[in-house]
Amino acid sequence: MLEVKALCAGYDQGDVLHALDLSVRAGEIVCLIGANGAGKSSTMRAIVGLLRPLRGEILLNGVRVEAATPDRIVAAGCALVPEGRRVFAPMSVAENLEMGAYQRLKRGERDEVARDREFVLNLFPRLEERLEQPAGTLSGGEQQMLAIGRALMARPSLLLLDEPSMGLAPLVVKDIFRTIADLNQAGATVLLAEQNASAALKIAERAYVLAEGRIARSGSAADLKHDPTVRETYLGV
Amino acid sequence: MNAPVKHASVQDRSALKRERRRSLMLLAAIWLGFLVWPAIAPNNYILALGSFFGIYLILIASLNLLMGFAGQISLAHGAFFGLGAYTSGVLAVKADVSPWIGLPSAFLVCAVVATLVGVPALRLKGHYLAMATLGLNAIMTVLFNELVFLTGGPNGLIGVPGFTLFGVSLANETAFFYFAWTIAGLVMLAILNLIQSRPGRALRSLAGNEIGAACLGINVTAYKVVVFAISAGFAGVAGSLYVHKNNFASPETFSFFISVLLVVMVALGGWGRYWGAFIGAAIYVAAPEVFRTLEDMELFMFGLIMILVMLFFPSGLVSLFERAGGALRRRERAR
Predict the structure, then answer these.
(1) Cβ contact (<8 Å) for A50 and B215?
(2) Cβ contact B5:A112 at 8 Å
């Protein structure tokens, strides 16, 4: 579903991703783990077109998208839940969800969008109780639910989640990761960038370890959980 | 599964419709209320202030659309006001073109210039965008002064004819008031429809969070350029009305200072608050009249009041009305 080949990307200060290779197959949860500044968020941003790659290829369902703008990548079926959630604070929960389906509503898929909204509200019943509430007044966990729900409203074939556990209480993190696993069971393909390596490796099938913008290790999540370096560096064992 | 889906969306849509109907009714009530202005204005001077209120309402509401709703900082709105005025004025004076052609031309010229400038400038954010638009205002002011053969230079463009309708001049204060108020009403209706539509919500999402908006497939650059063009176009319409009302245009009227003052009026009324533009325009027209007697203290008092408003009403003076409206609704629900 997603193939990243020899991806190099960076900012004005210099390159942050160096010849990165990774892939995500349909139906998988794949996670990117690594320390702060390892390049996880930059990888996610490059995949959705927020960071223009300098070299390399990104293929989404076999189509090259490394030069595409974010709106075209969303239209191609890839949605990102960005780091820090980035909900639209003054807008209501309902309006935020509607914005998630922005391109679909533009195409006139009103009934399908209504059905998907019901799906999202079933997935996160707390959002249903707060439909008219401004998103900025929700708790961190609820905002994360809204950010995931909003991305789901685009009905993506590939869901990218950037640090979904950031700043959340352990119990809420558990809930969020359970929901991600449930979504995967329901057929969603997920690429997850996460600093909380132990939580991510629990639900992922495969994982990549990023260090200084390079893939330092990769393999099945089960294998990486027992890798001594990963255990020592990222799992604190 | 289908029944609750339908129920939820119908509920949302009816809430949206209710909100839209309420806003339209309020706009209609304000618009109709102003129709009595010529009857109650004690003299032509006060009556003319009503016309200028309509012109500044267009100017401030269009800037609010760009800054308050879409979150893009512009310090060039005064320049677009001027560009609209000179476009319409020069066409009338130098080419004998009817103001009725000049008015849409002012919109078009401003929108096209904004698009050309916006494509590179709107890649910038925050302070950088503010600096770029400040530079644009400076360039336009230089052009208004230096293109003497067109604009009349520092002496101004004189002899600009007024609007006529079916051979009847609208130079009369009452006639011009109704004309300006009609155009202002149409512009305000267009802005209301825009902000309450799906593209309007996309605009609001830009103000909240550009990255969040881009992640949802909103073409952020296109939206920014389009709203910049619309906002500049409306400023051009205000400029056209202004120059045909005054029969004169001077570069001083469209300086950087005016651009800053317009930003202040948007803030005083309420950022991203549709009704805030009415308050901003009222202050813009009334403040010089109220403070005139204070002579040298005028600017001091104006600055002091501005600081107090920003300290105690950071969401603008319209928040006072919003709070009162909220309290009334709560009381109604409690009954």
Answers:
(1) yes
(2) no
**First CA to last CA distance, chain B:** 35
ipTM of this complex > 0.95?
no
Token pair 């101004």 is found at B156
Asked if B8 and A118 touch (Cβ cutoff 8 Å), the reply is: yes
Judged against a pLDDT cut of 70, whether residue A93 lies above it is answered with yes
Structure tokens, A47: 């995949």
Instruction: Determine how β-strand A14-24 pairs with β-strand A78-81.
Output: unpaired
Q: Name the DSSP class of B66.
A: I
A130-145 pLDDT per residue, tens: 888 899 899 888 998 8
Q: Where are the beta strands (DSSP E) in chain B?
A: 157-158, 164-165, 168-169, 248-249
Nearest neighbour of B205 by CB, restricted to A48, A81, A88: A88
Would you call B9 and A69 a contact, using CB atoms and an 8 Å cutoff? no
Q: CB under 8 Å to B326, separation ≥6 — which residues?
A: none
Helices A140-152 + A110-123 axis angle, to 10? 150
For residues B185 and B175, give the distance between their C-alpha atoms in angstroms, rounded to a whole number: 15
B307 lies within 8 A of chain A by CB: no
A75 to chain B: closest CA residue: B217
Residue B284 C-alpha, separation from nearest chain A C-alpha, in angstroms? 27
Distance of residue B18 Cα from the nearest chain A Cα, in angstroms? 14
Measured between alpha carbons, how far is residue A86 from residues A83, A98, B139 in Å? 7, 15, 37
Residues 201-220 of B with CB under 8 A from A: 201-202, 204-205, 208-209, 211-220
Nearest to A39 by CA among A60, A63, A72, A11: A11
User: Nearest chain A Cα to B210, which residue?
Assistant: A86
CB pairs under 8 A, 24+ apart, for B264-267?
A: B264/B306, B265/B56, B265/B60, B266/B60, B266/B63, B266/B64, B266/B67, B266/B68, B267/B310, B267/B316
Q: Which of B14, B16, B19, B215 to mutate to test the interface with A (most CBs of A within 10 A)?
A: B215
What are the pLDDT digits (tens) for A18-67? 889 999 999 999 999 888 888 899 999 999 999 888 899 999 988 999 88
Short-list B48, B153, B69, B98, CA closest to B106: B98
> How much is the pTM?
0.85
Determine contact, residues B213/B71, Cβ cutoff 8 Å. Answer: no
pLDDT for A112-123, tens place per residue? 888 889 989 988
CA-to-CA distance for B202 and A125, rounded, in angstroms? 25
Q: Is A136:A87 a contact under the CB 8 Å cutoff?
A: yes
Share of chain B above pLDDT 90, in %: 56
The closest CB to that of A88, out of B8, B15, B212, belongs to: B212
Q: Please, are residues A177 and A199 in contact by the beta-carbon 8 Å criterion?
A: yes
Inter-chain contact A114–B209, Cβ cutoff 8 Å? Answer: no
Closest CA in chain A for residue B206: A88
Q: How far apart are CA A231 and CA A224, in angstroms?
A: 8
pLDDT higher than 60, residue A209: yes
| Cβ neighbourhood burial of A236 (10 Å; 0-12, 13-18, 19+) | exposed
